Structure of Large ribosomal subunit protein uL22:
Amino acid sequence: MGKQKAPRTLGETEAKAVARMIRISPQKLNLLAQLIRGKKVDTALADLQFSRKRIALDVRKTLESAIANAENNHDLDVDDLVVAEAYVGKALVMKRFSPRARGRAGRIEKPFSNLTIIVREVAQEAA
């Protein structure tokens, strides 16, 4: 036997993608999450394409994964998708030490982050 299938936590018109262990601090990653939050997916992809931040490529890949999940797994229309939620969580922090003056050691922290993007299908109003 096995475990029962977990119930779906998202709504019927939502899809999710998670990028784990991204090598950047959560504070810096949250700047890009704020940039795309609430926008239509094609606008968000364009913003990430022309962003000068190094990590924008990873955020873009995660957003494209959420779009692909919506299209292939949940049969949602790509043209009607909106970035409903984009949030950042802390992952592990690697601790490293660097030699300092007079025999001391300075601690260097190298943080990792998790990024979750949820896209939602919004019905177009008849104009």
Observations:
- The first helix runs from residue 26 to 36.
- The CA atoms of residues 18 and 109 lie 23 Å apart.
